[in-house]
Amino acid sequence: MEMPRPNPDVLARKQSVMSRLLQVLPADAVIHDPAETRAYECDALTAYRCPPMLAVLPASTQEVSDVLRICREEGVPVVPRGSGTSLAGGALPTADCVILGVARMTEVLETDYDNRFIRVQTGRTNLSVTGAVEEEDFFYAPDPSSQLACAIAGNIAMNSGGAHCLKYGVTTNNLLGVTMVLMDGTVVEVGGAHLDSGGLDLLGVICGSEGQLGVVTEATLRILRKPEGARPVLLGFDDTAVAGRCVSDIIKSGILPVAIEFMDALCIQVCENFAHAGYPDCAALLIVEVEGSEAEIDHQLSKIIEIAKRHKPVEIRESQSAEESAKIWLGRKSAFGAMGQVNDYMCLDGTIPVSSLPDVLRRIGELSEDYGLPVGNVFHAGDGNMHPLILFDANKPGDLEKCEAFGADILKLCVDAGGCLTGEHGVGIEKRDLMTHQYAPQDLEAQMAIKDVFDPDWLLNPAKVFPLDVSEARRAAA
Amino acid sequence: MRPETEAELAEIVVGLNGPVRVSGGSTRGVTGPEDVLETTGLSGITLYEPGALTLVAKAGTPVAEIEAALEAEGQQLAFEPSDYRELLGTTGEPTIGGVVAANISGPRRIQAGACRDFLLGVRYVDGHGHVIKNGGRVMKNVTGYDLVKLMAGSWGTLGVLTEVSLKVLPKPETSTTLSVSVPDADVAVQVLSKALQSPYEVTGAAYDPQKGSAYLRLEGFAGSVKYRSRKLKSELAPFGALSDHGTTDGLWQGIRDAHSLADQTGDVWRISVKPGDAPRVAEKVGAKQYVLDWGGGLIWALVPEGADARANLDIFTGHATIVRAGTDTVEALGRFQPVNAALSALSNGIRRQFDPRDVFNPGLMG
After folding, report:
1. Domain boundaries in chain B?
2. Does A72 touch chain B (CB under 8 A)?
3. Do B146 and A193 touch (CB under 8 A)?
4. β-strand partners of B36
5. Chain A neighbors of B232, CB-CB under 8 A
6. Which of B138, B294, B321 lies closest to A419 in CB terms?
7. Which residue in A30, A204, A368, B262 is a FRET match for B7, CA 20 to 30 A apart?
8. What is the mean pLDDT of chain B?
9. Minimal Cα–Cα distance from A284 to chain B, Å?
10. What are the CB-based long-range contacts (under 8 Å, 24+) for A124-131?
11. Do the domains B174-256 and B259-333 sit in the same CATH topology, yes or no?
12. What is the dihedral of CA A387, B123, A444, B12, to 10 degrees?
């Protein structure tokens, strides 16, 4: 993956940039020693690493504003960083950049149950937002697999999803307002505790802009009352295509499960070995979860089972206890970690229309044979968000490149099926060069025009999202 | 001007030498330049997959046509778009492009989300005459910037929508409306708030001060609606006895379309606030009559003709939009609430990029 060459002029001014930053930040918030900046050399896309010139850890919106103003005056690129859990390389530094981490900004600023929102600093982790409202039986809905570690700042940057999006939507559907600092240091308030935007929906375009428009320091998030209960049913099938048709039939029936998760044989096996969830040994497994009171859950599950039976499942198992439900979810949620224990893998994130599931799975199987690399499939089937896991050997020369080429082919397949390159992980550097497969030049121009307005010098996270040759003129002019 | 293909529309835009009013069915009272660029020639559902909960339609497709197609499969537009015809005395046929351009959402918005939350993808012609696509037809899509949300609610000022792709949802098996008599608006908002804080999935929470009644809607499978209605009645018992009205689609349509203000003299404003602020805001704007929807988050206010409902609102967060008023009032006050200097710089910057000649509904949004 190519990254722009560091600007020698910026590198030469490291000391003076650092001393200016030290005027606005405490000494321990400016990290400059190469032994320490190395901690910021990558995010969860660990195949790519590059220590930044400096890293800063501001503790307030004012400090973020000071940092950005100085960096803009100095012409230094800034790469914002939440918790560094991006799977797309969204927080990958360049050697001439300042990493701006929000890790010291973790406060809850306001909790309002009557109006059903919470306002937090964005360094706070996703799970600890729910943690802050749990005692009143409320929760924050988006639940990416990394929710224990990932920060709200990163969730907003990537418009993160999770397993329960089918019912609750993704970050953008649960974000009410932000405090954001522009590259010139201007602090803007967008949205708030009220619903709907008064003017243009800037909040909508900020969410998912991958840290390229500004640094979000505070967020107003919608919180919801927890359902009375939730329970999954496991459905096993001896054919992946049949499982796909079952998903479609469940959705058509009028039931809206909170989650429909799909795993193929390879993933079932790996997850079962890890979590001992009692997954059946079969070609495809669905975890379908519904919510409500006991009676409501029974009613919905019985309807789902009735539909599933028409597809001749090899296994139907309703969870009998809270412990069993937790185990079933542990297996699914630890799919990536469990796979990582047995093999190197690359995780993809394309989305396809649910109806093309059988076709796409068949094509992935064919590609797997062509490339000679095994692939496991685990995904949010209700909304068509696939996470194929390609297994490779990082120590074998050429295997990573082969894996990346295979991954690119799968993502192109998703686009050609009527879907998209990324459903919830973001473009980052990982899918940057595939953007031209999904979007025509004028489509990308329209997106870059937004960045021109928010960050005219293209200093914020400049080497991401858009193919380097497409953004080159803009980055060079800066 | 009424193009019948996207390419024809793009050609027209390239050839424009003056401003135009971009229009769907002309039912939402937008005024502007004399030359009208209509999308009604771009009509028809292009894709509908009930099993994927997705529908794609050309922008000029009548909402009624879409609702009928969904109805046949037991599905619906969950954001329940309002129909402004009765309130504004307009006669056209609301189009899906118009609904999206204005981000029109009804009572269920409080639970299911707004129009923009159901919008998966758009195609539009920008001010350069370029056909742009963004998003797609899948529910999870974070590929590049989300111009889909930006186009929703941009009232045609950034481009002319040609096609929209929407997430649809199953229509509930049944519904019921609970009402409770509460003469005091503050208490009424507490009732709505309490209901929305419950786990019982209230999909409508409105208050009509004229009638002194708070209304709550429950939807879903029959057994579930019955169960939740029983639970809510007992949880809200301290506020009084709740009556159960069964399915009352007409009542919610009335709230959705601000029906009770239609025949009244005066201007109509739509005010978006933090729900708990609603009673005080209604008082501050000097509403002669009003209705609360979205648990208090939306105020439909009837004010004396020409009055500036924004005059006393500076201590509240939110915004006030004119829905019905004389041309003089709209010109003097602006249909949309002005945003602060920093946001205005960003919004104007985006408009200059998307519509550099300022031909689409110029000045409509400030």
Report:
1. 6-170, 174-256, 259-333
2. no
3. no
4. B21
5. none
6. B138
7. A204
8. 96
9. 19
10. A124/A151, A124/A152, A125/A83, A125/A149, A125/A150, A125/A151, A125/A152, A126/A150, A126/A151, A126/A152, A126/A155, A126/A160, A129/A221, A129/A223
11. yes
12. 170
Nearest chain B Cα distance for residue A315, angstroms: 23
CB B366 to CB A424 under 8 A? no
Integer angstrom CA distances of residue A100 from A177, A178, A216, A456: 21, 18, 11, 19
Q: Domain A343-416 belongs to what topology? A: Alpha-Beta Plaits (3.30.70)
The pair of structure tokens assigned to A34 is 């190469």
Phi, psi of A46 (to 5 degrees): -75, -5
Is residue A205 a contact partner of residue B353, using CB atoms and an 8 Å limit? no
What does the pLDDT look like over A113-134, one tens digit per residue? 999 999 999 999 999 999 999 9
Evaluate whether B22 touches B360 at the Cβ level (below 8 Å): yes
* CB pair distance less than 8 Å for A383 and B139: yes
What is the Rg, in whole angstroms, of the alpha carbon atoms belonging to chain A? 23
At the top level of CATH, which class does the domain B259-333 belong to? alpha beta
Name, in order, each residue with C-beta under 8 angstroms of A177's C-beta and a sequence gap of 6 or more.
A119, A189, A190, A191, A192, A193, A203, A219, A220
Sheet bearing A315-318, strands edge to edge: A315-318, A230-237, A284-291, A259-264, A375-380, A385-392, A344-347
The CATH fold of domain B6-170: 3.30.465
Q: What is the amino acid identity at position B69?
A: A
Q: Which amino acid is at B39?
A: T
Pick from A116, A196, A210, A301 the residue to mutate for testing the B interface (most B CBs within 10 Å).
Answer: A196
Q: What is the pLDDT of residues A336-349, one digit of tens each?
A: 888 888 889 999 99
B312: pLDDT strictly greater than 90: no
Q: What's the pLDDT score for residue A145? A: 86
The CATH code of the domain at B174-256 is 3.30.70.920
Cα A220-A224-A228 angle, rounded to 5 deg = 165
**Better-scored residue on pLDDT, B312 or B101:** B101
- Among the partner-chain residues A115, A420, A443, the one whose CB lies closest to the CB of B132 is A443
Query: B170 and A254 in contact by Cβ < 8 A?
Result: yes
